[in-house]
Design goal:
Elements: E1 2-6, H1 10-21, E2 25-29, H2 33-40, H3 51-58, E3 63-66, H4 69-75, E4 78-81, H5 96-106, E5 113-117, H6 125-135, E6 143-147, H7 157-162, E7 167-170, H8 174-188, H9 191-194, E8 211-214, H10 216-247, H11 251-259, H12 280-293, H13 299-323, E9 330-334, H14 349-359, E10 363-367, H15 372-379, E11 384-385, H16 389-393, E12 398-401, H17 413-419, E13 424-427, H18 434-439, E14 443-445
Parallel strand pairs: 1-2, 1-4, 2-3, 4-5, 5-6, 7-8, 9-10, 9-12, 10-11, 12-13, 13-14
Helix pairs in contact: 1-3, 4-5, 5-6, 10-12, 10-13, 12-13
This protein binds uridine-5'-diphosphate-glucuronic acid.
Residues 120, 150-154, 227, 230, 234, 268-270, 272, 275-277, 279-280, 338-339 line the site of uridine-5'-diphosphate-glucuronic acid.
Length: 467
C-alpha cells in the first residue's frame, strides 16, 4: 500500500521505516528541509536500535522523503499524522500542527483515503480533523478519520512497533478498518515474522499480535489512559519507596512481592528519581486537561504529577544528607538521558538534578553513552563531559547514578572505588545490591532502601543512618 507519514520525529520516523519493512511504499513528509536533507543523505537523527538498519534497507527505495504534503497525500491510500502535540501553558495539548496538516491534506484528497492519527491526541481530535477536512471542501465520502495510536518506547521503538502487545485500530466504519487491517496484515498473518530478514523480537513477543478494533474516540482515550496509568504505577511505587525509607523496609523486596500478583505485574514498578521524557509528563497533564474540559475533576492525576516532582526533590535531599554541603564538591554523574537506551534528554530528571546541583555550586563531570551531545546543548560548559563512567568518577567526592543504562549496572567496583576520592555512590535507579556495595567498601544510598556503609566503618562515620 502507498502510505504517507507526516512528521519525522520519533514516532513518524520509526513508523515510516517499519511500514517500509512490512513491504509498503512509504513517503515520509516533513517541512524541515535540513532534516529531510540529512535523512536523504543517510543520517539517522535519533539513537534507536535497528533504525539505522531499516533506514539503510529502504531509504530511496520503499522509503522516500518529501516536503510536499498535498502531493504525498494525493498519491497515498493512508495518511498517518505523527506531528508534535506539545503542551500549551495551560497544560493541554497544542493541536495547531495537527490542524494545519488536516487543512493541507484536504487539498490532496481525490480518491478515498483514510487519515490516521498516530500522535497522542485528546479524545475529540478526530472529530476536529474531520471537520477541518470537510470545511476545506473535501466530500464526506472521500475520506475517513481513524486513530491508530503507537505504544512504542524510545530506545526499543522498532521492536515495540513490530512486536506490539496489541495493534489498536480506532475507526467508525468497516471501510476504514479494512485499510488499517491491510496495512498490518504482514504482522497479523505472521508472514513478517517468518521472513529470514525480519528484525529479531524480544523474548516475550506475542506473535502474531492481536488487533483491537474500537471506536475512534475509545482509541484516542486508550492511548491517554495507558500512559497515565503507567505514570501512575511509577508514582505509586515511588510513594511506596518513601514509606519504605521511613519504616526501614526494602522497596525492591516490596516490588517483588507486589509485582508477583499477576493482576498487578512487576513491570513499570521500578522506583527511581521520577518519570521524564517527551510523553508521560505531557500526556498526564493533557489527559488531566481533557478530563477537566469534559467536566470530570480527575485529581488522581494531580497527585501522580505531585509525587513525580517530589521524587526529584527527595533525591536532592538525599544527596545533601550524604554529602552535607554541596558548594565546591566534585560530583561524578552517570546518565543524562531521561532513561537508558536513548539520547533523548527532554524532561529528563537527570538534567533537572544536574541543574539543581550546579545551582548549589557543585562541580560536575558527567558521562552518558548516548546523550552527551544533546546535554551539551543545554548545559554548555558548566559541566565537564567524560568519555567513560570511570573518568566521570575520577577524583569525585561521590558518584550519582541518574539513568538506568545497562552499562552502569555492570561497573568494575574495584576500579570505581579506586577512581573516587571518597567511595560514596548515590544511586537514583537502584542498580546495585546494597550488601554487595557494602562488602566492596562503598557507602551506598539508593531509593526506598536503607543506606549502607562499608563493612567495618566506625559508627561516627555512618552519618547517623541505620545500616
Ligand atoms: C512511554 C510509554 O511507555 C510508551 O508505551 C508510549 O508509546 C510512549 O511513552 C509515548 O507515548 O510515545 P517512553 O516515554 O519512551 O514511552 O519511555 P518509558 O520507557 O515509558 O519511560 C518513561 C519514564 O519513566 C522514564 O523516565 C523512565 O526512567 C521512567 N520509569 C519507567 C521509571 O521511573 N520506572 C519504571 O518502572 C519505568
Amino acid at each position: 500500500m502507498r502510505i504517507a507519514v507526516v512528521g519525522s520525529g520519533y514516532v513518524g520516523l520509526v513508523a515510516g521505516a517499519c511500514f517500509a519493512d512490512l513491504g509498503h511504499e512509504v513517503v515520509l513528509v516533513d517541512n524541515d528541509q535540513d532534516k529531510l536533507a540529512a535523512l536523504r543523505n543517510g543520517q539517522v537523527p535519533i539513537h534507536e536500535k535497528f533504525l539505522p538498519e531499516l533506514l539503510g534497507r529502504h531509504r530511496g527505495k520503499r522509503l522516500t522523503f518529501s516536503d510536499d504534503l498535498k502531493e504525498a497525500a494525493r498519491l497515498s491510500s493512508a495518511v498517518f499524522v505523527a506531528v508534535g502535540t506539545p503542551p500549551t501553558e495551560k497544560g493541554d495539548a497544542d493541536l495547531s500542527y495537527v490542524e494545519s496538516v488536516a487543512r493541507e491534506i484536504s487539498g490532496g484528497i481525490e480518491d478515498y483515503k483514510v487519515v490516521i492519527e498516530k500522535s497522542t491526541v485528546p479524545v475529540y481530535t478526530s472529530e476536529w480533523v474531520r471537520k477541518i477536512i470537510l470545511r476545506n471542501g473535501t466530500e464526506a465520502e472521500a475520506f475517513d478519520v481513524a486513530s491508530n495510536p503507537e505504544f512504542l518506547r524510545e530506545g526499543t521503538a522498532v521492536t515495540d512497533f513490530l512486536f506490539p502487545d496489541r495493534i489498536l485500530i480506532g475507526c467508525d466504519n468497516e471501510r476504514a478498518a479494512a485499510v488499517l487491517r491491510e496495512i498490518y496484515e504482514p504482522m497479523t498473518s505472521g508472514d513478517y515474522y517468518r521472513r529470514s530478514d525480519a528484525i529479531p523480537g524480544p523474548d516475550r513477543a506475542r506473535i502474531p499480535p492481536p488487533i483491537i478494533v474500537t471506536s475512534t474516540k475509545s482509541a484516542e482515550l486508550i492511548k491517554h489512559a495507558s500512559n497515565a496509568f503507567l505514570a501512575m504505577k511509577i508514582s505509586f511505587i515511588n510513594a511506596v519507596a518513601s514509606v519504605c525509607e521511613s519504616v526501614g523496609a526494602d522497596v525492591n523486596q516490596v516490588v517483588h512481592g507486589v509485582g508477583s500478583d499477576s493482576r498487578i505485574g512487576p513491570r513499570f514498578l521500578n522506583p527511581g528519581i521520577g518519570y521524564g521524557g517527551s510523553c508521560f509528563p505531557k500526556d498526564v497533564m493533557a489527559f488531566r486537561a481533557v478530563a477537566r474540559e469534559s467536566g470530570h475533576d480527575f485529581r488522581l492525576l494531580d497527585e501522580v504529577m505531585r509525587i513525580n516532582e517530589e521524587q526529584r526533590q527527595r533525591f536532592l535531599r538525599k544527596i545533601h544528607s550524604a554529602l552535607w554541603t554541596l558548594r565546591g564538591k566534585q560530583l561524578g554523574v552517570l546518565g543524562l538521558a531521561f532513561k537508558g537506551g536513548t539520547d533523548d534528554i527532554r524532561e529528563s530528571p537527570a538534567i533537572f538534578l544536574v541543574q539543581a546541583l550546579l545551582q548549589e555550586g557543585s562541580k560536575i563531570t558527567a558521562y552518558d553513552p548516548a546523550a552527551m551531545e544533546r546535554a551539551r546543548e543545554v548545559l554548555g560548559n558548566r559541566v565537564a563531559f567524560a568519555e567513560s563512567s570511570y573518568e566521570a568518577a575520577r577524583g569525585a567526592d561521590a558518584l550519582l547514578i541518574l539513568t538506568e543504562w545497562e552499562e552502569f549496572a555492570n561497573l568494575d567496583l574495584n576500579r570505581l572505588r579506586q577512581e573516587l576520592r571518597y567511595p560514596i555512590v548515590i544511586d537514583g535507579r537502584n542498580l546495585y545490591d546494597p550488601e554487595v556495595m557494602s562488602a566492596q567498601g562503598f557507602t551506598y544510598y539508593s531509593v526506598g532502601r536503607a543506606a549502607c556503609h562499608p563493612d567495618g566503618v566506625p559508627a561516627a562515620l555512618k552519618n547517623g543512618k541505620k545500616v
